[in-house]
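New to this. Explain the following:
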Amino acid sequence: MSKISTANFEAGETTNRTDANNKFSAVATATGSINEENVRSEGIDKRQLAVRNSVIGRTEPLVYINATDNLNSGAIVDTTYAGQNGTQKFELNGSANPDLVIDLTGLPGGYLSISSGDLIRIHYSIYFKSHNDTAGSAFTSCGEEGSGKEGNPADGIGLVIFPTWKLSGGGAHEMFPNEVNLVNNFGPSAGVTFDNNTAKTDSISFVSMEGAAASALRGGETERMVHGTWSHVATQSYTVYELRLYGRGPMVYQGDRQLYVPTWGSDRYHTDYMDVPVSGTTFDFTMSNGQLGIMVMRGDS
């Protein structure tokens, strides 16, 4: 931090114009050396004393914080997403409920500005209530529970929940950096391979479709809350216009590090084997209350 180096005047000493001028010169030199770096590193500046407000843009060290939910005038309302087969994503939550989306276009400049080095944390949750693959069978990870099918190998059949962001004003939503791509359509009989480098699963949540129901030993009443987080240090600058939550499924979590979309009702999922689904080739998912939140902090604060 900037310093003033000068001797004090002691009682009884005499002074003159030169001594006084030297003191003023020392103060002027030290004042001119004050900048953002030495004040922020070792002192207090206006940013630390500023009133925090989550909707006006950067107020370091807190850049932005906000959260939303899909309550309908304060009430929890179920939403069913019909005709899903895992080949494409679907928005959460539509129909009678508000979408699980944070619109950032109301900020100064019309977007959220994230700088390289900023700390980003996304958190979300949504209640997975049920699916419709229950009639006439009991759904488990091995498919139908029936005579002669006890030896079916288990499959990780479930629903994937994941957040995305929009990085251009009128553009499409994208996955977060280095996350496995679930935005693009693919399948049936195709999948995506994930890793720990450029196709990670940090931000997604995989929830099993197994559950209990009164009509069967195991059925479509999944009744479970899905939670997910994503923590990231930005390695570049971003202009973010929107944050949104999506679902996709059913998908199969395979041991060879793939999220796979099979041809439902065919091959090993044929009625003579796992029998998934019991009828048709698509599924209906019923989701309930959810929330989506974001916090960004300045990395060098």
